[in-house]
Write a structure and sequence with these properties.
about 15% strand, 2 domains, Rossmann fold, alpha/beta, 10 helices, about 35% helix
């Protein structure tokens, strides 16, 4: 099939059904008010109106809020969120930085931002800070998105929370239509016909990723096979040069900031008995669990199947 498939508008119900992302309305368990939000702990908070003052201690949540037009509602962010400053120069994240990560922040400092709600990761290591903030009377919502579907659902919740429901719906439609378009194109593709991919992080330490990582998810969704998928040495794995050569990959993808040149990568990892692998660079920040996830999926699909996809 050589015709390029362009993203189109698909009926919303069909999209969600195909994706398996059909959302179930939050149970309010007797709560009243305009809306309720349930976090990943199962904790439920009632809001009489959208939050006007939001403190975010989780970079993915900060990014989602900015992407759906709620950046002006941020009154405090963690230091990791400040890394988004270059991507969103219109939001002065440095000015509202709390000077610490979620793990090091002082609950009283968070309280001083006078937030309507605090957003944080749902990690066990943050249980004490969450408990302390809630003890100060703060509404705390904890989320840890770990899949494409989880990000999709989270965008909807952030839209409700911030009053940016239309903007969130637009972002969700793009996520749904992109996934459906790719799924339909590659669903009947035999595994042996899918390109084998070696991915290398941009740290310059030659680490790759295996099953369970966001990059592995993107490669699989885009119709490829991650050569390191079944390696068992943790979520990040450093294979030898000889191991990568033995994988005989079709495509090498590295993060945009990878220090080595394309020529060096080919010279290092090319299997002389096979065609030379193609080299691509994934845009910085595209392999994260926020709204850049859909951009990463588009880019991966175009790299792996240029004859099928053009999302420009």
């Amino acid at each position: 099939m050589n015709t390029k498939i362009l993203v189109g508008i698909v009926v919303a119900v069909m999209l969600l059904s195909v994706m398996g992302l059909l959302l179930v309305a939050d149970q309010d368990d007797g709560a009243t008010g305009e809306f309720v939000v349930v976090d990943d702990r199962g904790e439920l908070y009632r809001f009489d109106e959208p939050a006007e003052r939001i403190t975010s201690l989780a970079k993915p949540l900060t990014q989602i809020l900015i992407e759906i037009g709620a950046g002006d509602k941020l009154v405090g962010v963690d230091t990791f969120s400040v890394d988004l400053q270059d991507d969103y120069p219109g939001i002065d994240l440095e000015d509202i930085s709390l000077g610490a990560s979620a793990w090091g922040v002082n609950a009283e400092t968070v309280l001083a931002t006078e937030p309507d709600v605090v957003l944080i990761y749902n990690y066990g290591s943050l249980a004490n800070i969450i408990k302390t903030m809630e003890g100060l009377g703060l509404k705390v919502l904890a989320f840890t998105p770990e899949s494409y579907g989880a990000v999709y659902e989270l965008v909807g919740k952030m839209g409700d929370l911030s009053g940016k429901t239309d903007e969130a719906a637009d972002a969700m439609e793009l996520m749904a239509s992109t996934k459906t378009t790719i799924d339909e194109a590659v669903k009947d593709m035999d595994e042996k016909d899918k390109p084998r991919v070696y991915f290398e992080l941009g740290t310059g330490t030659h680490n790759t990723v295996n099953q369970g990582s966001i990059t592995d998810v993107l490669i699989s969704m885009a119709g490829g096979v991650n050569a390191a998928r079944n390696e068992t040495m943790g979520s990040h794995y450093k294979p030898s040069k000889e191991t990568v050569v033995s994988w005989d990959v079709d495509i090498i993808i590295v993060e945009e900031k990878h220090p080595e040149s394309d020529a060096n990568l080919v010279a290092k990892y090319d299997n002389p008995s096979s065609p030379e692998p193609e080299i691509f660079r994934l845009t910085h920040g595209y392999n994260t669990y926020d709204l850049n996830l859909v951009k990463g999926l588009m880019q991966m699909a175009e790299y792996l199947h240029p004859d099928l996809f053009d999302f420009s």
